Amino acid sequence: MSKPRDMWEFRKIGEPLQIVKRAASSQEDVTDGVVEDKPPPISSPAPRERLPGVGIAGLRERQDQTKILHGHERPVVYITWNREGELLFTCSKDKMVCVWSFPDGELLGSYKGHMGAVWACSVTADSRWLVTCGADRLVIVWEARTSRELARVELPGVVRCVEWAGAGPGAPASPASERFVTCHNRFGAHPPAVTVWRFDGLAVESLLSITTLPSAANQVRWGRGDYFVTSAHDNGEPLSDVLLYVVATLIIS
Fold it and tell me: Are 107 and 69 in contact (CB under 8 A)?
């Protein structure tokens, strides 16, 4: 499980991110979400000079200026940004989520608690909470800046996608941002479902579960104003289904 550790200062929506800088220690390792053998700043090498190897938690800059982030041991399957575009979150089959600062590419920390591949993640508009989901059927809510686990819920099947309300590109800040939506696969007698949840800072509560699906959903997204949820389905046909659900009347009071 991740070791709680401040990676940036708490801020309100719209305020600039203040990264917590720490001197590297020989006792620190990547299991605590800390960069091991921290590389020099990208601007330090001479032109066209490659940075030296720095292990799995470092950053290299190729001659074509493409920045390569090294922090995972298995394939990366999902990436997402925070609202301001200054934090990049990466999910991997190595059971871990990493968070990077942009544009310098520093590995700020990691979130460890899943027991299988992490398929998706989403961060609230104020970068306060991160929610992750994975092949272990778990949905975990974290305090984003410390990687401290706040709550978890186990679903009947593999959880393929998760998204906070108000977390999408261009979405307005909203007090309803503690809601999130998930989709999970069929498992045994349990049908696939799209579920809307509420997180109050302590516990996760199910608000709505939609089980009348043509097949398991591959992705779920909030629509305009967070009044709608859309889900994408692969039915084994050339054309897949996109379903639209009105959820506002059941959730917003």
Answer: yes
Helix (H, G, I), strand (E, B) or coil at 95: coil
Q: Distance between CA 15 and CA 4 in Å, rounded?
A: 23
User: Do 106 and 5 reside in the same domain of the chain?
Assistant: yes
- Summarised one tens digit per residue, pLDDT across range 207-239 is 999 898 888 899 999 988 888 888 888 775 444
| pLDDT above 90 (res 33) | no
What is the rounded distance in angstroms from the CA atom of residue 123 to the CA atom of residue 43? 29
Q: To the nearest 10°, report the CA torsion of 129, 60, 45, 64.
A: -110
DSSP structure string for 126-155: TS-EEEEEETTSEEEEEETTTTEEEEEEE-
- How much is the mean pLDDT over the chain? 77
Which of the listed ranges 13-17, 66-70, 138-142 does the model predict with the highest average pLDDT? Answer: 138-142
Q: Are residues 11 and 89 in the same domain?
A: yes
**3 state DSSP class of 18:** coil
- Whether the pLDDT of residue 3 is over 90: the answer is no
Q: How far apart are CA 162 and CA 133, in angstroms?
A: 7
Residue range of the domain that includes 195: 155-253
Q: Tell me the HSE value of 157 on the side-chain side, using a 13 A CA sphere.
A: 21
The 10s digit of each residue's pLDDT in 199-209 is 989 999 999 99
Cis peptide before 103, with omega less than 30 degrees from 0?
Answer: yes
Could you tell me where the DSSP H helices lie in 68-147?
Answer: none
Query: What radius of gyration, in Å, describes the C-alpha atoms of the chain?
Result: 19
